[in-house]
Task: inverse folding
């Protein structure tokens, strides 16, 4: 069975709301909000495998991500 394709890149893979992704808007990766914050291991682990590196989570889903000791920069 073929692997499912990532959903729309401008939607959060966790809540399916707009993720404000600069890359999805055609801008440079450095312009994306997720590049200037730290995301927790928990937030990154919740991403479906097919969406890793393909879609940003939204600010809401990543809001409390920086409070843990496992916070790290978003992967690109």
Result:
């Amino acid at each position: 069975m073929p692997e499912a394709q990532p959903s729309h890149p401008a939607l959060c893979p966790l809540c399916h709301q707009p993720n404000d992704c600069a890359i999805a808007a055609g801008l440079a990766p450095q312009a994306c909000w997720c590049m200037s914050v730290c995301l927790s291991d928990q937030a990154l682990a919740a991403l479906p495998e097919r969406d890793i590196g393909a879609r940003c989570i939204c600010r809401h889903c990543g809001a409390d991500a920086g409070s843990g000791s496992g916070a790290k920069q978003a992967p690109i």
Observations:
- Residues 41-45 form the longest helix (5 residues).
- The chain has two helices and two strands.
- Residues 43 and 64 are 9 Å apart (CA to CA).
- The helical segments are 41-45, 59-62.
